[in-house]
Amino acid sequence: MTLPIIDIGVNLMNSSFDRDREEVLARAAEAGVEQLIITGTSVESSEEAAHYAKSYPGRLFSTAGVHPHDAKDCGPDTAERLRRLAGLPEVVAIGECGLDYNRDFSPRDVQRRWFEEQLRLAEELDMPLFLHERDANADFAAMLKDHPALIRRAVVHCFTGSAEELYTYLEMGLHIGITGWICDERRGGHLRELVRDIPLDRLMIETDAPYLTPRDLRPKPKGGRNEPAFLAHILGVIADCRGEEPAALAAATVRTTRRFFGI
Description:
By secondary structure, the protein is of the alpha/beta class. It is built from ten helices and eight strands. It has a single domain, classed as TIM Barrel (Alpha-Beta Barrel), CATH 3.20.20.140. Helices cover 40% and strands 16% of the residues. The protein has an eight-stranded parallel β-sheet. Strand 1, helix 1 and strand 2 form a beta-alpha-beta unit.
């Protein structure tokens, strides 16, 4: 029996899906993934995501934002283009936005500038936030605290951080997205303990496909590509870690996700 679940973060417009995007969606449906939110990481990818989601009303949604890696490419028209996208019915959040000091693909001052721009946009439009943070906890939390009205409408997507970081975010009131990172015994072992402490009404699940393929998935997918159909496996691992029944966890994450994104 498949459990109805929602993938809050899938990079469905990634080129790795160009040859079989429809088949990927069909496999997701067979695995119980009823709704998916396509991640926008630049103005261009956000436009593509919204355009594609429009073809699947009620099933596909998207975000509109600029990832910190792409902040260096922002220009005078970036904020206005995101504002126009945010007005579309299929666009349900601002993001993916935030700070990434791990790779520094964009200068840190530029990352902070465009994170702030997107925080203001979400505030102006009264929209949820889909957030990215890596090795930038102090600046990230400080900037969010300057926008207290946004915090309870914000989800830290693909959380992989430390206990201290998790408890900081939970104390602030943020929602948390968990991916297949928790299935990796080398890097995600600590998450198996921490996931127990995330309140059920602030926990959401995602694949971040085509990235972060669950390491313990059997059989391993050809080419190693992650896809939304594997969300059921991730849900099962999280339920086991929390000592909960998968059906109860699935229902709770669906309730939380629909309330949060208004879908």
